[in-house]
Specification:
This protein is an alpha+beta fold. The chain is built from 11 helices and 15 strands. InterPro entries: LysR-type_TF_proteobact-type, LysR_HTH_N, LysR_subst-bd, WH-like_DNA-bd_sf, WH_DNA-bd_sf.
Length: 305
Amino acid sequence: MEQSLISLERMRTFVRIAERGNLAAVARETGAGQSTVTRHLRELEEALGVSLLTRTTRRTALTDEGTRYYAQCVQILSLVEQASQEMRDTRQATAGTVRISCTGALGVLHVSRLVYAFQDENPGIRVEFGLTDERIDLVRDGVDIAIRLGPLSDCAMKLRSLGESERMLVASPEWLRRNGPVRSPEDLRQLEGVRMSRVHGSDRLVLRSTRGRNHVVPFHGRLIVDHGLAARDAFLAGRGYGPAHRWLIEDCLRDGRLEHVLPDYTLSPVPLSMLIAPERTNLTRVRLCVDFLAEGLRRVPGISR
């Protein structure tokens, strides 16, 4: 093995290829030419005496040896970054980039403001803030922190529970005037709702009474949206009733633009969690951001521990 060909630079190149799955994408990301990226990978494989990746015209995939080597490289590079950070002074230790991903509506209405406040307190930290309701791969997409609603099963990431998000049925006063008073779950059966796509079980509502009894009613409607802000606008436009997170419509309830439907019945809350890439948890800037966001989200209306 030619040890001189095994360098941190080549390890970093290999890790990014493994995560992005595309040599051209890594070349654009790093600013290096694709020939340089290809050469780094070839020299590393020659030095190790194994193939780390299988390549097709469209994508690369890790071999078994590549999978094991990738995990080791991630650990080594993380240790190198941590060691370097410990040698910097306090100002430098809180410099660098934190990459955050958040579910769309929560990010627009609440988390964005927390990001601004975090940067005001930590002016040396650059934040890349992405909004998506799709599940992402933190390692592949280079994300440090992901804030997600709903149950999570990714045990490879460090999980921090932020509490539960309260939900309620809402509608506009105009819609309620048109459709008459709603006094019981049975009154909802013939009424039109605003549904969310890609939500399991969105074709029914489970409402719990103050006596602890569950009432299951069908939930249907001609309008189906895929974003919380679109649902909020639809409620305000009188297009139907539907379930909403309290943090999504709290201001609308407060100023009377929306009303709480069947306030004596409750909907089950939804878990709110933070996922952190394991190899990033020991970075000062990431720890600071995790703690800041967790504390701020506890003050958002409708988020309960």
